[in-house]
Every structure is written in structure tokens, then in C-alpha cells.
Amino acid sequence: MLPADASRSSSSSRSSRISSTSASDSEASGSTSSTETTSRLDPRIISDAIIGLSDGLTVPFALTAGLSTLSSTRVVIFAGLAELTAGAISMGLGGYLAAKSEEESYKATLNDTRRAVACGFVDAVTSIKEVFEPYDLPPALSEDLAYHLSKSPTLVQFLMQFQHNTPEPAATRAITSGLTIACGYFLGGLLPLLPYFMVGQDEVMLALRWSFVFMAVSLFAFGYSKTCFVSGWRGGKNVWAGSRAGLQMMLVGGAAATCAMSLVQAFDSLAS
Question: Where is pLDDT greater, at 224 or 128?
């Protein structure tokens, strides 16, 4: 091959490598940007919503079913709304206080870690090696990483994240948790009350039957959705798992309503 041909072939190969590299970089940047633009809900928000909805779909339903034996829609509506309000406030405060306690625990651990690192109570290199030990890294690489991180200004954050397993909570975590649980409880508990607004004052048993229908559908849909949201919506295995969770929610809600009705009837008979 002539030198001119060799230079042309080498330059063409270099240009092809550069073009392929730029194309792969553009694809990677495009996938990264698409990933960044795709927003997902915080799993903690989903967990709080499930807690609020699960209690809201069960407790007020059992209460309204039990009070239906008193044969007055006004009693059911007023007592149900009172329970919804009190329950939503109580559940929301519980979620808020739980999130605040997590935040205080994180701050206490962070301050202890900062003092230990500043005073030399913690051997940074040894602590970092212990973090990497389960990953079976080569000793030389582990030494280099430990030495580099021990001199890094982000050493405290590294120890908090990987040694103490305590990621920093969001600043609005407590308020978001409380509001999510409270709203989930109120919305879930409002469903069994809706039929009582649509019938006459003496048609409480008709409202009860419609309430059972509403709640059977709602409990099944809730159990199915919360399971398939995690495991997936497609495939026979996922469909069966969601259906089983929906049936379990229906059984729990039905059992709670039956027990409440039986107790109210028993107390009413004893009082009369």
C-alpha cells in the first residue's frame, strides 16, 4: 500500500471512530435527558398514600355499616363525617410526627459523625474499607479509594450514606407525609358515605347496600392497583397477584363491617 493510501485510510478510520463515538455520546445524552425528564413519584409518597387509603377504606366503612343498624341516615352521615375529620387529623399528625422523628434522628447521627471525623475518633480509611469490603474489590483499588475519600470534603456524606445507611430526608418530608396520609384517609373514607347522601332519611338499608357495592369495588381496585403498581400490570402472574390482593382487601373490609354491625346490634339490644 502506498503511503498516501495508508494516510487516507488511517484518517478515514479515525473519522469513522470519531463519528461513531459522537453518535454514541449523543445517544447516551439523549437517553440521559429522557431519563431525567421522566419524573417518578417518590416511593415514600406512594407508601403514605397507601397507608391513608387502606385505613380510610376500612375503618369508616365499618363504622357506617355498624351505625346503619340505627335506621337513620342523619346519624350515619354526621357520625361518619366526624370520624373522617378526626381520623384524617389523627393520621396526618401521626405521619408528620413520624417524619419529624426521622429527620431529628438523621441530624443527630450527622452531628455525631461530624464530631467523630473532626476529632479523629473515626479512622476514615478503615471505615471506608469496611464499606467496600462486601464488594470484593482488589486490595490496591480499595486502598486508593479509601485514601482518596478520606481526604475528600464529602467524607461525612459518604459515611452517612453508606456506613450509617441514613440518606438525607427532604426538607418538606414531614409536611408532605402528613398531608398525603390525611388526604388519603379522608378520600378513602368518603366513599362509603356517598350513598347516604343520595337516599331519604328512612332508606338507610338501601344506602347500606349501595355502600357495600361501592366499597367492594373500591377495595378490590385498591388491592389490585397497589400490588400491580409494584410488580407490574402485564402477565398472568401479576394479574393473579393483583386479584388475590384485591380479594384480600375485600375480605378484610367485609369482616370489619360485619363485626361492627354485629356489635352495634348487640349493644342496641342490650340497651333496649
Answer: 224
